[in-house]
Amino acid sequence: MKLFKIILLLTLCSSNLFSQSGWIHQNSGITTKLNSVKFINSNTGICVGNYGVILRTTNGGVNWTQKSIVYENNLKSLAITSANIGYTVGDSGLALKSTDGGITWTRMSLVKPYYFFSSVFFVNDSIGYTGGVEYHDMKFNKIFKTTNNGSSWDSVEVNGSAFSYVKSLFFINSSLGWLTGGIPLLSTEYVSRTVNGGLNWSIQYNRQPPFNTVYFIDSLNGWLSGQSSAAAPTILRTTNSGDNWISEFPGTGYIINSIYFTDKRNGWAAGENRIIQSTTNGGINWINQTATQPGINYNSVYFTDSLTGWAVGDSGTILKTTTGGVLTNFTNTSSEIPDKYFLSQNYPNPFNPVTNLEFGIPELEFVSLKIFDVLGNEVSTLVNENKPPGRYEVTFNGADFPSGVYFVRMESGDFMDVKRMVLIK
């Protein structure tokens, strides 16, 4: 089904919100380029960047603390396992490990001074991979694998090529994984798959311009992103484990550096030219979410759930969203506190194309307000947070919706109500 965008016509109430954006700027305290961000939970997160920068937060990014810089190499990639063990890799063979959730970092035994690592990925607490390029002679036909939490690393041949490099690694389990890379002398970029834990790799797809990242949500559904030209797409997707790739975002000149999906439908892509995009139908359609700082490139995006996420980029930029990147705001329509929960019928109804939704809660409570299409598919989350007691109004515009029936559902405490809305054009 074709994706129809919900454009919320709401007034910003916070000076920290970017115009026409559901992303909030957080103060990193630095101006260094940030390359990767990961969160252990909704409060504790880590990001790494150039010149050995490592930042850590324990309050969802309200404050970021810079760890003491021991190595000044650029850090390019970050992985965190379920045991709160962190790994980061970068230029000149730098590979660090943390065993306390990112508080302290020590160098691992993987010492390769001519290797410039670009990606690190851990399947579980024990098994991990890293790859990149050896700039000494442009030969790097290997990735490195550990099966003991990074205590030791073994090299694994990739495609048998004497001139190859790795940009991105992603594994679903200890056997099945993908990588993106290339052969510089042949100007060829590829995505390869392994089904035996990296022992053997087979090329699934190749092209120019290059791929930057690969991401899979399960063994079948995945996405590729990278640079583009008029003939080459920026984002591709697969529904059969990479046997076939479908172009979903056409070549526009944008470069996508990072992709993250919370499930098969909801995902985000971040890249150059201040681009953050979102999809709610598995990557078939993408919507721009940001138009923020000129000249800022976003290098990594990460979500802890379908609403809460971060993006990091150039000049120490850190953005956060608690709405999935959707621009939302709620007007408290009265000082009167209602004596019960309610969701009013939208007005006008039928509508074309603007309508209003009013709801109320008698006490501080978590509120969920979601919109569904006639097939029961969730198409937007309008509210998903604790709200103080009061009456609230949300206005949205259905200009990009087809005529038809939609439903809005409110849940708060033990209360639930559903209203039927009709859009007529």
Which characteristics define this entry?
Methylamine Dehydrogenase, Chain H, globular, Immunoglobulin-like, disordered N terminus, 37 strands, 2 domains, mainly beta, single chain, about 425 residues, 4-stranded antiparallel sheet
Could you give a short description of this structure?
By secondary structure, the protein is mainly β. It has strands at 7-8, 24-26, 34-39, 45-49, 54-57, 65-66, 75-80, 86-90, 95-98, 106-107, 115-122, 128-134, 142-146, 154-157, 165-171, 177-183, 188-194, 202-207, 211-216, 222-226, 235-238, 246-249, 256-261, 267-271, 275-279, 287-288, 298-303, 309-313, 318-321, 331-334, 342-343, 354-361, 365-373, 378-387, 390-397, 404-412, 415-423.
Quickly count the helices: 0
CATH topology of the largest domain: Methylamine Dehydrogenase, Chain H
The CATH class of the largest domain is Mainly Beta
Q: Gyration radius, to the nearest Å?
A: 23 Å
* Silhouette: globular
Structurally, how many domains make up the residues?
Answer: 2
- What is the CATH H-level superfamily of the largest domain? YVTN repeat-like/Quinoprotein amine dehydrogenase
Estimate percent helicity: under 10%
Give the N-to-C terminal Cα separation: 19 Å
Sequence stretches where pLDDT stays below 50 over 5 or more residues? 1-20
In words, what does this structure look like?
It is a single chain. The model is unreliable at 1-20 (pLDDT under 50). This protein has 2 domains: 16-321, YVTN repeat-like/Quinoprotein amine dehydrogenase (Methylamine Dehydrogenase, Chain H, 7 Propeller); 331-423, Immunoglobulin-like (Sandwich), CATH 2.60.40. The protein has 425 residues and is mostly beta strands. It has no helices and 37 strands. The strands form 9 sheets. Strands 1, 30, 31, 32 and 35 form a 5-stranded antiparallel sheet that branches.
